[in-house]
Structure formats: C-alpha cells, structure tokens
Write a structure and sequence with these properties.
This protein is mainly α and about 240 residues long. It has ten helices and two strands, in the order αααββααααααα.
Amino acid sequence: MMATSSRSLHGQIVHELGKLIIAGTYKPGEVLPREELLAEQLQVSRTALRESLRVLGSKGLIETKQKIGTRVRDATHWNLLDPDVLAWHGAALPDLEFVEQLAEMRELIEPAAAALAAQRRTTAQLERIQQAYASMAAAVDMEAWAAADLRFHHAVLDATANALLRPLFSVIETALGSYLLLSAQKADADFKYSLPRHARVLQAIADQQPEDARQAMLEMIADSRRNLREGARPTP
C-alpha cells in the first residue's frame, strides 16, 4: 500500500503519476491505462485515483474524454509554474527544452534584479548576500552548495526592494533549486567552479555598480546554461 491516510494517499498518487508524466514514462498523446488497471497497479481505490486524476487535469498534464480515456496532454498545456510540476521536473533529469526555458526566464529576471540590487541594497541586505556567498565558499558537498547558491539568488532578488519582483522567487524557487543542484552535479568534483562568478556579482552589488552587476549575473547564467545543456536529455 502507498499510504495509510486518504490525504497522504491522494497526494502520493498525484506525485507518482505526475513524475511519470514529466519524466516521459507516459508521453504526450499517450492514453493512460484503464482506470481499473491503473488503480490495481498503484494499489489504490478507483475513487482515490479519480480524485488524483482531477488534480493532474487541473495542472494541465492530462485530459479525459469519453470513448478515448485519460490522455497525457502536450507539454505546451502543462502549468509549468505550478509548484508540483516544477518539483517533478526537478526530480527527473530535465529535458533540453526545459533547461533552455528556465535559463531564458533567469536571463529576463536576474540580471535586471542584480542591477537594481546594486542601486538599492541596504547594508543589511548586502550582508545577507555576503553570508550566502560565505556559505557557498564553505560548502563541503553539492547539496550544501546548491542550498547556499539558492539563498544567494534569493538575497539578490530581495535587495531589489521591488515588492512585485520578490514573490517571483517563491514561484521559481523549486525549479531554480533543482537547476542549481543539477549544475553542481554536472561539474562533479569541481562543484564550486562558479564561485568566482558569484564573487563578481557580489562585488558589483557591494560597490553599487548596476551595469557591472547586470553583466556579471548574465555571464553566470550563460555559464550555468552551457554546463547543463550537456547533461539534459533530448526533448521528447
């Protein structure tokens, strides 16, 4: 059995099926096994399965039609900003298209945020960026590095003093965290290879040089993008 309580069972069904779809086990256009067969495979009731399929439908992953069954929708319909969908992308080796799209989103947001941070940061905000950088430098494994790296980017975005930009971090946090960890894993033993690039961003913000901060962040993202392109799986 997958779980004991109905709530945890329901959540686990959604999680398991979501991961299978994102990872490409069930591909776009493919019809899922019949309800009774899928419920048997997952060892859950058909009622719990139906509830879970409704949740996946609300996230844009599947659609159910009479005489056809439940079919995986094309990825263009997936709600990629949904926290669960982002988490499932992170749990699987991301495909090349997702790597490119996330890098593009970062390029649109983070260089401008770094420039604003250089203009507007307070002493306390600069200290938080410095503390995150120090944690990156002191990290003894990839997980600690990626967590500190995520705090660094969060602190930069927070230093923009833009109330509309700050909530963006909560939207992309899961995907960005997975992205940063994958980038560190790709670098293998040299997972701190991008520390000098972070140092340049930090120095530009400390010196209150907006264009230097913008360029340093753009170069950091481009470097991470190149690193992850090699490890991404082909887009289905």
